[in-house]
Design a protein that fits this description.
382 residues, DNA polymerase, domain 1, 3 domains, flat
Length: 382
């Protein structure tokens, strides 16, 4: 199974000329980020119906011809689980490319699995077992072996047929445009550069804290995120999530109190002790109305809980009708969001609204009702 290995500027320019008229390209990247905040790009795989190539960015001084190709709005970029690949492209160009097609997202709509892995999707659609031997490869090491390059090329080689079959099925079902909103969200630059002030909300263990403690977590997490970006270091190398939570929980006022926190060694205190204490004090001085709040699921009345149970049944009915798993259509939490009027409820947007959300709204507004006949449930107009 042939592929081109691109490691010179002339070869890259020639490849891009060969691909420039393609209506779509399959795309994947290999990277490492164990020792950095930002992923280090090590290999780019690309293919159309005639060509498969592995491009070595570590051997090239200028990726402009490739970026011009990938940012051509006339070419659909096909990826599987696109988010990390798009994050890398945003670092190179300042924004993700458009338009895109994510085969993992499409698999959910087609009943081929939720968050399905690439290997499992290839097996399901093409009945091909992919080699997993190099899934933990250090892609920054050179030279790359032929086995490693074969493995990498497979990530775009089989993606071509997966995409074409998914697209054909979506067209047959009249659902090709239903994923436009999902793909547009993946191409939103804000997704890959969240504000520093939101970093705290990603930490685990927040439910152990309240009030001013959350303000301390926010201050500490924002400082750590900014420093990690500036120095291009993993956040955990600077200060672990657990230590941030413990500092906020114990609210130390001195280095001596910091030393009493389990896991807080002298190196951390020497480097960041004064800054942590300063941030704790800044949070302590904030008025209560400026403390961040955890998003709480609204408490439902017994009548609302019963109504959610009914709507769960309707979702299951709709999922079976469209050959989807119920969780792919809506979780109980998402049904609660719809019931309580949250504008962020996934059932109010995109294909989920078309398949089920609209019907649930009609039931809630009294425009439709549930009837039972001969052990069958029907949704009918009032």
């Amino acid at each position: 199974m042939s592929y081109q290995y691109i490691e010179t500027q002339d070869a890259l320019t020639e490849l891009c000329a060969q691909l420039q008229d393609s209506p779509w390209l399959t795309l994947d990247t290999e990277f490492i980020r164990e020792k950095t905040y930002y992923p280090q790009l090590c290999l780019i795989q690309i293919a159309n119906t005639e060509h498969v190539a592995c491009i070595d960015p570590l051997a090239l001084d200028d990726l402009t011809p490739l970026l011009d190709l990938l940012y051509n709005p006339a070419i659909t970029k096909v990826l599987h689980s696109a988010r990390q690949d798009l994050e890398i492209l945003q670092q190179l160009k300042g924004e993700p490319p458009t338009p895109i097609f994510d085969t993992q997202v499409a698999a959910t709509l087609l009943g081929q699995g939720e968050q399905v892995g690439y290997g499992n999707l290839v097996k399901l659609i093409l009945d091909v077992d992919l080699d997993k031997a190099h899934s933990r490869t250090d892609w920054s090491q050179r030279p790359l072996s032929s086995d490693q390059l074969d493995y990498a090329a497979d990530d775009v080689r089989y993606l071509r047929d997966v995409y074409l079959q998914q697209r054909q099925k979506l067209e047959a079902l009249g659902r090709l445009t239903w994923l436009d909103d999902d793909f547009a969200q993946l191409s939103d630059p804000a997704l890959y550069s969240p504000p520093l002030g939101e970093a705290w909300s990603k930490l685990k263990g927040l439910n152990r804290l309240k009030g001013v403690q959350l303000a301390m977590v926010q201050k500490l997490a924002q400082w750590r995120e900014g420093l990690a970006r500036e120095r291009n270091l993993p956040k955990r190398w600077l200060l672990s999530d657990d230590l941030i939570i413990e500092v906020a929980r114990q609210r130390p006022l001195s280095e001596d109190k910091l030393r009493r926190i389990r896991g807080m060694d002298d190196k951390i205190i020497q480097r960041y002790g004064k800054m942590m204490l300063q941030l704790v004090e800044e949070a302590r001085s904030l008025p209560a109305e400026q403390w961040p709040q955890l998003q709480q699921r609204p408490r439902l009345s017994s009548h609302q809980e019963a109504l959610v149970d009914i709507l769960v049944g309707v979702v299951k009915l709709s999922a079976a009708q469209h050959q989807l798993s119920p969780n792919a259509l809506a979780s109980r939490k998402e049904i609660e969001q719809l019931l309580t009027g949250s504008p962020e409820a996934p059932l109010l947007h995109g294909w989920r609204y078309e398949l089920c959300g609209q019907s649930l709204q009609s039931l809630l507004s009294g425009k439709q009702c549930i009837t039972i006949e001969a052990d069958h449930v029907h949704i009918t107009d009032v």
